[in-house]
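Lab channel / #folding
Pinned by the channel admin:
"Please post every new chain as: sequence first, then the structure tokens as a reply. Keep commentary short and put observations after the output so the thread stays searchable."

First post following the new format, from NK:
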Amino acid sequence: MILRVMHDTAPIPYEEALTRQYELHKRRLANEIPDTLWLLEHPPVITTGLRENQAHNILINPFTHGVTVVNSDRGGEVTYHGPGQLVGYLIASIKAHRYRVRGLVKNIETSFIRYLADAHDIKAETRPEHTGVWVGGDKITAIGIALKKKVTLHGFAYNVNTNLSHFDWIVPCGIHDGGVTSLEKLTGSMHNLAAEAHAIAHALGETLGYNKLEFNL
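Reply from TO:
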């Protein structure tokens, strides 16, 4: 299987990226492109998922903080995206993953757990009650997948050099018994986001069963 990897280095507004995701989804349905992983950053934005009654998990007046709130069709609840966070959108045929969204999510979690251990000597893990990748009691990677017509949308958000104070604006993913962390916080130094993107693409490609990566940078 081939995984096409796209990487934008300039932050892209969330709504613009959502429109582009739909375009990629349409092209994947028509078999015009192979499974695609799009890696990027967003300017500061709060997004909500499909679950109802999420407004109470937004703890600020977004207008006074200069941040937009966007309703999304991904899984999960309220989350934050911003500079220094590597976002990955996976536009893929679920057929390639045995028609199992939960299995795909587990494999993404496994990719990050292996990568963080091998590349950064960080012991990460999953939680049975929540999706995502955790280091101790803090989440480092959030995951939310949507499925339309047997092709996935959305994906993950990996905190590399993220401003963690912005998570104080929300109850991340509606979870009250856990915090958030970043690679920068755990290692004490900032990291090159492009290098992390390249390495994560390879880690995901291997765990998800792709035998060839095509980089479209």
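NK: The longest helix spans residues 101-120.
TO: also worth noting, The chain has one domain: 2-216.
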